[in-house]
Design goal:
By secondary structure, this protein is of the alpha/beta class. Helix content is 40%, strand content 21%. Strands 1, 2, 3, 4, 5, 6 and 7 form a 7-stranded mixed sheet that branches. Strands 10-9-8-11-12-13-14 form a 7-stranded parallel sheet, sandwiched between helices. β4 (38-39) and β5 form a beta hairpin. The longest helix is centred in the middle third of the chain and has 22 residues, at 275-296. The chain starts with a strand and ends with a helix.
Length: 453
């Protein structure tokens, strides 16, 4: 039997629970505070630790009893507190889907952490805004390092002092691996969703991820084998883009919606979701687009990422955008309606592949970041996800010094040939079968809530 702080015995007998009825004559509920107990939703209901008590006054006596049945049927469950950390635009996208699925399964959950605009709209409280800390590459992080370190201090303090019920990490490798270690020391369980691409860099980190994460939800088929040491703690949940990537209507509808000619042959330009990416990628893309427009009658369209404004595009890109349309908020439809695309390496390459659009994959960073990156990357022959999944080059890639307007034109022109284009589209569509089934966020939400019980 348990005792309250005032020394009164809390009777937990089954007989007491069976015989008590709030409707019996002379029964009266009263409130009693027991140490750090939190009030329940009705009179006489209090929580003390994980146990539920009621106080009743009947006749000339008052009794304090513990009642499991009433606890499960009357008292509200304590709010589950989940910290979610996403540091990139793609992580914000997948984090918002995950948060929505968690709330659909358990609306009492409270979520907070590092969140972008999408996650904030879903109801995740931003202790730190994602936009304030994310950067490109190793050297470009210097501009946001102070805010990033401040964010780390804030989250580590919360893990240590407030102990959320669960920490969910979404990619963002360097930051999140440190945070996972802090959570481990604080006794907070960790779910890593979209684990870092250790198959491309620092394979030695696999052991560290396995040690620090209680569960791992991987989204690429070959990643489950990489974490074989984790056994049943790792699950292949399918790729979340399977639920996201679809155009709004057909090609004709897209062209009409944006005031483009019904017979327009589009060339989609995706210069990235970050300012530094635009700085390196946009100018050669724009120059190549004008050449392709002149020589092949294509209509260039920039599919502007939601993380960038038109002003940032113009300021950071420093490119001549005359004759190039800029459309924001309809990226998938633009890609699906295009003959080909020039795409910055990253999530966008997989999105473009799922939409069946032939592409040239490009990437460029500062010289120092490139040198450091080459030293870290081992055992990967490609940068574009379509090529990585296929295990061979099915779309062209241009990296660092190779990224020039003239090389872009040379790489893109064969994709305009009908037979080559058709073969490329067929290969891209085959990749979909490797990515599992739709419903990744729903499956991860179930894993997350299962870790709370």
């Amino acid at each position: 039997m348990d005792q309250g702080r005032d020394g009164k015995t809390a009777c937990g007998s089954v007989e007491a629970e069976r015989n008590f009825s709030p409707d019996q004559p002379g029964a009266r509920f009263t409130q009693r505070h027991l140490g750090r107990a939190a009030r329940g939703s009705g009179p006489g209901a209090v929580w003390y630790g994980a146990r539920f008590y009621i106080t009743i006054s009947q006749g000339n006596g008052e009794r304090l009893i513990h009642n499991e049945a009433i606890a499960h049927s009357t008292a509200p469950a304590p709010r589950r507190r989940i910290m979610i950390v996403a540091g990139e635009a793609s992580g914000d996208l997948h984090g918002s889907d995950l948060a929505r699925e968690i709330l659909a399964l358990d609306s009492s959950c409270e979520m907070f952490g590092i969140a972008g605009e999408r996650m904030r709209r879903t109801g995740v409280k931003a202790l730190v805004r994602m936009e304030d800390i994310h950067g490109l590459g190793l050297t470009e992080l210097a501009s946001t390092i102070s805010r990033t370190l401040g964010a780390m201090r804030t989250l580590r303090a919360i893990l240590r002092r407030n102990k959320p019920d669960l920490l969910v990490l979404i990619d963002y490798a360097e930051f999140n691996l440190i945070l996972a270690g802090a959570a481990k020391r604080a006794g907070v369980p960790v779910l890593y969703y979209i684990t870092p691409q250790v198959w491309a860099w620092r394979r030695g980190r696999i052991r560290k991820i396995v040690e620090r994460a209680d569960r791992m939800a991987v989204v690429l088929p070959f990643e489950k084998q990489l974490y074989a040491a984790a056994g049943e703690r790792v699950s292949f949940v399918g790729h979340p883009l399977l639920d996201r990537v679809r155009p709004e209507g057909g090609r004709a509808e897209t062209l009409a919606r944006h005031g483009l000619a019904p017979n327009a042959r589009l060339l989609a330009l995706l210069p990235g979701s970050r300012r530094a990416e635009v700085r390196y990628m946009l100018a050669p893309m724009a120059e190549a687009a004008r050449i392709l427009a002149h020589d092949h009658g294509l209509v260039p369209v920039i599919a502007l990422a939601p993380t960038l404004s038109r002003e940032e595009l113009a300021r950071e890109g420093r490119a001549d955008l005359s004759g190039i349309s800029i459309i924001q908020g309809d990226t998938y439809s633009i890609i699906a309606a295009s003959e080909a695309a020039l795409v910055t390496s990253g999530t966008a390459t997989l999105e473009t592949a799922l939409l069946g659009c032939p592409m040239v994959v490009v990437y460029k960073v500062s010289p120092l970041t490139y040198v450091l990156g080459r030293a870290l990357i081992r055992g990967v022959d490609f940068i574009g996800m379509p090529n990585i999944l296929a295990g061979e080059r099915i779309v062209p890639e241009l990296i660092q010094g190779e990224l020039t307007a003239r090389n872009l034109v040379r790489a893109a022109e064969p994709l305009l040939n009908e037979s080559i284009r058709s073969a490329t589209v067929s290969r891209l569509k085959d990749l979909r079968h490797q990515l599992g089934e739709p419903g990744a966020a729903r499956r991860v939400a179930a894993i997350a809530l299962g870790m709370l019980t």
